[in-house]
Each structure stands twice: as C-alpha cells, then as structure tokens.
TrEMBL record:
Belongs to the CTL (choline transporter-like) family. It comes from Oncorhynchus mykiss. It comes from the Eukaryota. This is Choline transporter-like protein. The lineage of its organism: Eukaryota, Metazoa, Chordata, Craniata, Vertebrata. GO terms for cellular component: mitochondrial outer membrane; plasma membrane. One of its GO terms (molecular function) is antiporter activity.
Amino acid sequence: MPEEQPYYGKNGEPRKYDPTFKGPIYNRGCTDIVCCILFIICILGYVAVGILAWSQGDPRKVIYPTDSRGQFCGQAGTPLETKPLLFYFNIMKCASPMVLLEFQCPTTQMCVEKCPDKFMTLLKAYTNKEDFKYYKNFCKEGLEGLTVTQILSSGLCPAMLTPSKPFTRRCFPALDQKKGGEITVGNNSKFDDGEGNIRDAKDLVAGVKNATVVIEARQVAMKIFEDYTQSWYWILIGLVIAMLISLLFIILLRFLAGIMVWVMIVMVILVIGYGIFHCSMEYVSLKSEAGSNVTLKDLGFQTDFSVYLHIRQTWLAFIIILAIVEVVIILLLIFLRNRILIAIALIKEASRAIGYVMSALFYPLFTFALLSIVIAYWAVTAVFLSTSNQPIYKVFNETACDHSRKICEPANFSTSSMKAECPDSKCLFAFYGGETVYHKYLIGLQFYNVFLFFWCANFVTALGQMTLAGAFASYYWAFVKPDDMPAFPIFSSLGRSLRYHTGSLAFGSLILSIIQIIRVLLEYIDHKLQGTQNKCTKFLLCCLKCCFWCLEKFIKFINRNAYIMVAIYGKNFCTSAKDAFFLLMRNMIRVAVLDKVTDFLLFLGKLLIVGLVGIFAFFFFSGRVKAFENTAPNLHYYWVPILTVVVGSYLIAHGFFSVYAMCVDTLFLCFLEDLERNDGSAERPYLMSDRLLKVLNKKNKPEPAE
C-alpha cells in the first residue's frame, strides 16, 4: 500500500483528514484482487462440479424405492411403471443390526402394485386357486409346476402376507395399538408366520423400526397437512396483513419517527401486559378442572399439543416468561432514556434516508432471489452427487457363509461358486457405491459443494450490505440533500461494489465461511461420537462449539462494519476492517449503548408487528371470537396456521427492518466518523442533521466575516 499523502487546510496547515471529503469516493480502484481471482476460479470449479454431478447422478434413486435387482419402482416408461410400492418378503428381518450398518434390509424386496390387505400364508394359499392367484402378486415369476417347498427354498415367494399400508412408497405392516397397549396387525394380536409358528404382532414392531411412533407421526403429519389445505388462503391473508403493517410502519416512521417509537414502546408493554393478564385468567380458570395440576414432567411429550393448554403449569410458565420480559423492557427504558433520545434521532435520520432511497426497501427481494438461486444450485448438486454411485450387490445369507456380505453379480450368481458353497444365499441389491476415482473422491466433492454454498451465500449477503451501506452513506455525506446524491443511489452503489470490491466481498465472506464449515464439522464429529464419548470429550466439544459460535458472531459484526467502510472509502477489506474496529473501540460507550438501543427499538418494532398479527391469528383460528366462528376453518390443530403466520410475519418484518437496521448502522458509523473528522468550524462543518446536532449539544460555527 502506498503511504497516504498528508492533507492541508485552507491556510496550508497540516490536517489529519481530507477537508474536501464529501462522502463515498467515486474514483476508486479494485481491492483484494487476489481474492477476487480465487473466488472466480472457485466459482468456475463449482460449475464444473455441478456439470460432473449432473452427468453422473440419477435423482431417481432418491425419488423411487429400489428393489433387490436395483430397479426403480414406479418409474415411468418401464415395466415397473404400474408398481410404485416396495414390498418386503420378511419385514422382521429388517430388525437385524446389519440394517443400521448397510442401510439395507437382508430380505428379498420387490415392486408391487399395491400392498397386501389380508393375512395369508403360502401353504394355505397354495391349496386355493383364487387365493394363490392373489398371492402371486407378491411373488417372482417362474412358479409353474413348483411345490411349496421348492418355492420357499428358491426364494420366489414370501412365507406369509400381513395387512400392510404404504408409507414413503414402502409397504409396512398395518400396526395399531389398543387402549390397553396391545399391538395388533389387521385387528389381530397374533399371526401365522408361514412356517407353522404363531407369533405376536409386537414381533413386527422392531422390523418396521418402532412402527407405533411412525404411525403416530404419520397421523400428526397428515392432520397438519389437512390443516394447511383448509387454511392456506387465510395464512396468505395474514402474511399480506403483516406486509402491509410493516410497510405502513416504515412509512409512518418517515414522518412520525419520534412519536412512533414511543407509541411502539407503549404498545409492546401493553401487548405483553395483556398476554400476562390472559395467561393469568387461563391459569385461574383451570383451577377447578380435573387433571390440570399435572406437571409437564409427568405429562411428557404428547403429539396432541393442545393437551398442554389444559395444564396449569403451562400457563404459569407463560406468565413468568412474559413478566420477566416486561420487567427487563421497563428497566431498560428507565436507565437508558437519554440514550433512547439519541437513538430516536438516529431512527429519524434513517427514516429520512430511506425516504430519499425508497428503492432500498425492495432490495431484500433481490437478495432473496440470489440466495434462492444459490440454495437451489447447492441442493440440486448435492442430490446429483449423492445419487451418482453405481448399484452394489452383496451376498446375504441367514446361516454361516464365508462369502456373506461380499460383492456379487446378480446376472451369474445362480451359477457362481458362491451359490454352490452357500446354497441358501442370495445376491441382493445392497447400496449405491463405486470404486472409480470419481467415486473415491465423492465425499470431497460433497464437502466442496457445502463450502462453496456457504461462500456464495455469505457473498450475496455481503453484497446486499455493501450496496445498502454505499447508498445510505451517499445520503449522509451529501451536504445538500438530495442534490449532492447520485440519481439512483442503490444502482450506483451496487455497480461500485461489483466493479471494484468483489475481492473484498469475497475475502470477508471467505473468512466467515471457513468458520461456519468448522462449526459444521464440529457438529458432525459430535453426532458421530454420540454415545461413545466420555465427559472430557463432551466438555471439549462443547467448548469448541461455543467458541466458534462466538467467533462467528464477532466476524459477522466486523464484516458488516468493514463493508460500510469499504463502501465509503474504497479501501481493501483488511484496512477497512481495522479502521472500523478502531473507530468503534474509540467510541465503545456509544457502540455498546446507542447502537444496541437502536437495535433494541427496531426489535421492538418487529415484536409489535408479530404480536399484533399473532394475536389476530390466535383469536381467528382458535374460534375464541363469536364473529369468526362461522368464518374460521375447522382444524385439527389451530396452532398450525397460527405458528405459520407468526413465523412468516417475523420474516416479513425482518426483511423490511433489516434495511432499516443497515441504514442505522451505516449512519451510526458515518456519525462517529463525522464527529472525529469535523469540528463544526466553517472549514470542517458537521454534516449530520440539525436534529442530531441538537441532541448532542453541538452546532456548526458560522463562517467568519471577510
């Protein structure tokens, strides 16, 4: 870096800052070129990985279940097009520990048109023409002229059929649980296994991997899906209302920022207070209800979440949480009231800035579109990479066999030495794999895909931050607004960011991506060592995860302010990060209090919008208001649309307020820079608004008379 030239004032005196500085530098050069080149090379490599994955992968392996021959059930244009379901000859063999190791059930699997719906054994069906005709739907070809013993020894048919239902395109026994806890299948607690043994229905549970839990989860999922089909248009109306309220809130802040902030604070306190009152009423009303004094610990996990609303302890927990939040907010307002006045002035200035740069409110849509492309590319590439293996067949044998679990070829297995040495063995499809160079480095390509996903996603986010920072900084440093501002601040800032600072954006996002990928690896290691690690290892992993979580938050904070400095001065990332860091450290009290108070006020705004929409959704979908009883849809779980509306409202409000937050952060950094760069003299006047000057008890001195 060349040494910076000293600046001189009107009378030739040396100065620390350039007195002619009026905002973002337009005549700037490219920064962090090496990182820019590296980013472009990595993107080209990412495209190459995608092309390679798309040429080798086959998503049908994810979409369709695969039978013992490696064929796809239900694939269009094949003989199995009309057979979309996978049927297991002996589902109880799926309880084998080998399933957990090889992700494959050691029993013959075939594609069928529909699952069996009745109990039947091969021995009994063989004696009845109609029953045997039905039984053949679940058998392989070549049964003519064979006895029952020959059919079973050849593995052409299952020994028995049990009533089954399709789940994830696979036939699982139709298990149910009676009130007494007895497991039944097809309304029977016992069944004939086809080998002369009468067995309990509970023996099937392990084979279908805790089927009772799966059934309950499936029932809950189906009810939730039905609720969405009944309430989707009301959910959309709720989200539109949230968007309109957010937009109205931003517009009102433009003209009534001070009043709106205090109204917002009072509204939040009142909303939380009403929540405490409502929870208290519910708590008192349940006093006489039988069973309401059961503790949450004794109740345990319930799939019907409405059960918790009939427990007094649930409402007591709500009261305590809301009361703590209420007290914290009131105490913050009491002790930080002076700082809140400065924060309100910053918010007013941000409202004026957004008024001059209204297109900034719609910039998050552009960021969302770019992130959607990045996520879609990563997901598609991941699917194609994970499905680019070749089918691997292995020997499965119930008795002792030297060739068990060895790779085999199904085409010539019947005449191979493996079959001769192990007569009852079968060559079944095991999994997808491969021995080529491509398959050996497949895990590396998946890692590269994840890393580039983080890098690209962080780059898109950084681009949005720098673009908004450049636009709002041009507003702050304009002496005459809007005459000294660019005609299109957002497009001008976006062009500068991409043309000159792609390298800086890539550098900052690369640092953040490395930390995020380390966090992913720590989570992966923790998951793999779960159940085998000692207390020392758990403590070490916990400390590492905590440290890297804190480091990620710190880097995000540094990056955000570094991008603002890059947008203003046009320097490289490291210099900008250093300048931003030391500028914030020199004003640590203002950063710790003023900036965070502003963030807190904006958070209250999001909380108010979410609270208003959430309360409206609660009274509408729960049917607590008589006016909505006939309008609201009949739902299994009314909390499903309520939760969806609340989460969606928060995301919508966050999208609008993220622009506001970026504007406040940019103006705050410019505000600190203005205080250090200028002194209010005629030669170095403050460029902040009159409102901020008044709050800070500062003023610009008039020019001396000639």
